[in-house]
Amino acid sequence: xxxxxxxxxxGVPLRRSNVDTDQIIPAVYLKRVTRTGFEDALFAAWRGxxxxxxxxxxxxxxxxxxxxxxxxxxxxxxxxxxxxxxYGFRVVLSSRFADIFRGNSGKQGLVTGIVSPEDIEILWKxxxxxxxxEVTVDLEAKTATADDVTVPFQxxxxxxxxxxxxxxxxGLTLQQEDRITAFEANRESWRPKTLPARxxxxxxxxxxxxx
Amino acid sequence: xxxxxxxxxxxAHLVRRGExxxxxxxxxxxxxxxxxxxxxxxxxxxxxxxxxxxxxxxIATEDHxxxxxxxxxxxxxxxxxxxxxxxxxxxxxxxxRLHSLGDADQGIVHQVGPQLGLTMPGLTVVCGDSHTSTHGxxxxxxxxxxxxxxxxxxxxxxxxxxxFKTMAITVNGTLPAGTTSKDIILAIIAKxxxxxxxxxxxxxxxxxxxxxxxxxxxxxxxxxxxxxARAGMIAPDExxxxxxxxxxxxxxxxxxxxxxxxxxxxxxxxxxxxDAEVVLEAADLEPFVTWGTNPGxxxxxxxxxxxxxxxxxxxxxxxxxxxxxxxxLTGGTPLRDIHVDTVFIGSCTNGRIEDLRSVxxxxxxxxxxxxxRVLVVxxxxxxxxxxxxxxxxxxxxxxxxxxxxxGCSMCLGMNPDQLAPGERSASTSNRNFEGRQGKGGRTHLxxxxxxxxxxxxxxxxxxGDLDLPxxxxxxxxxxxxxxxxxxxxxxxxxxxxxxxxxxxxxxxxSASGQPALR
Lengths: 211, 518
Known about the structure:
The structure holds two protein chains of two kinds. Chain A has a single domain (6-170), classed as Aconitase, domain 4. Chain A starts with 5 loop residues before the first strand and ends in a 26-residue tail after the last helix. Chain A has eight helices and seven strands. Chain A has a seven-stranded mixed sheet. Chain A is of the alpha/beta class. In chain A, 30% of the residues lie in helices and 16% in strands. Chain B is α/β, with parallel strands linked by helices. Chain B has two domains: 7-279, Aconitase, domain 3 (2-Layer Sandwich); 304-465, Aconitase, domain 3 (2-Layer Sandwich), CATH 3.30.499. Helix content of chain B is 29%, strand content 15%. Chain B is built from 16 helices and 19 strands. Chain B has helices at 5-11, 39-48, 78-94, 109-115, 147-156, 181-192, 207-210, 214-222, 238-244, 253-263, 314-327, 347-350, 353-363, 381-389, 392-399, 448-457, and strands spanning 14-16, 24-27, 30-33, 58-61, 97-99, 124-127, 141-144, 158-161, 165-172, 200-205, 231-233, 276-281, 288-290, 298-300, 342-345, 373-376, 402-403, 424-427, 442-445. In chain B, the strands form five sheets. Chain B has a five-stranded parallel sheet with strand order 5-4-3-6-7, sandwiched between helices. In chain B, strand 3 (30-33), helix 2 and strand 4 (58-61) form a beta-alpha-beta unit.
């Protein structure tokens, strides 16, 4: 995973609350089996509307999304994060994120900063007044700067550290392999195992009605 | 130290307690896998040269993409077929048990775990699907995860997690006639909002919850995610143990006794403190339906569509106005006047045998409204078999409904079961998001009873609006089998059902060695 300390890019104001993952990427795009190439699927339902923010020239190369509250609610699909990243977004700022979406973002190197609703409004006004304004997001200082305004954002320390170090989750956990093995040795025998598969005896029965 | 149910399960799975802001490392007892969120996880393992650490704690099924018609033919949609073929190849390569289309244990992943007796109290259960919260009904800590987390669990059987907060949701009293657990959860979400549960594990408790059957409890926990919560839980009790006993993977003999003894300790201590509490009176509830485009936009059926101009909060007003525009509704319209085109009965929320029985009880001997299409999709192949053994399929077909094969189906429209643009549904599923059931489709979330009444009248209705025969007691839609319908039920629970062999079918090559269904 790429290390991120600061990121500067065009800010995109998305004046919508409750942008759920079905809006970020509709289910029809989930059928792909690859990890990349989802840029065309991002906000697919809105992309056909010429007035949609990403269809406006000044915002089309955006990489910092400034969204309304409850961003990323709904389905746990990680494709939502892939679609945002494939399009070019590196940062999403909102006053509130859905838990799963925020967790998924941290693992994929997409920064999710929590900004107060008042500051989101300020950022929206700047980005709407001067389309194409760049926003600088500084993970070290936990601030986002647009024009001459700097606002603070929150992000949990662990995710921030991992983003800044570019650390892969599985590698980190596998450093604890001894502990995992020790834990497994003490698991109770009633806990279920999927293998070998247990089934019901295949008894032949009379059909309940003519077949 | 006094603890809540969620905290007790959490503590019992700590591989390592996080220090200095790093998360705890939690052991995962059961990992459920399906075709949509797993391909990239297996791809990740392959790229890193990693194995599945515990195939014996992992089980896969095909559900999101599977067609509900012509399941003996190759899947027509190429991308759907690719996803399913990819899962089959991955299961084979990594040694994971898979229940494929045509297998009696194929079905929605959240039905498969419980029906096999794999879901039990005190477990940690994860799946790359947000409705994993369903399994919390057994007193398990169960939550949805993203694809990177799926890969993480496959590789390590653990997950790094920051502790959740806890919220008690107490439902006192007794449910009025014609209301169900679906109405409880829709009312809760309308009350606390789609973000109200964020960061929390919800624990449902109180008289009204304790009185619910296992399947009705699953409906409530299933929709915890729609309130933004990571998980929902209900303390295990005799209802839970009764449901589990004798299922294929339930513990036996001494293991059963040890398990039950431990499970009985899985309840919130009297002096434990929750981070938040919500209280509801069951007696105040009525059948609930949604009018908007998120599950929090719900109202009692007797209400009218909200008028945006009357909403004080600016944000909510705009959200409501947008929702009504999408839904093609005018503020002030009584909800009962809304005509629907399609009624969908199914999903991991309400596609279980009890749901099918309650619907059958209402529609028996009637015919659907002429203009309405009715789709009945059981949550698993085994639920379908059970329903057919009870003769429910005949009731559905006589009613004019389409009786389909198991899967997620129109809940999210990844297979051909979709709404057309502008088409309106009453759906027993869990999400009414824009486009969820098909591009431009308009969804009203309802209980199975409201779905049944709506299918009869063609407008959003409750069973109270029907002229029901006197011998139907509407106070006991408790999911018990119907009297005098079809053959007598073959067993008390779904898993007691022997597997019928379709005439002329050759043994399938599925992972379980079960005969194929037709």
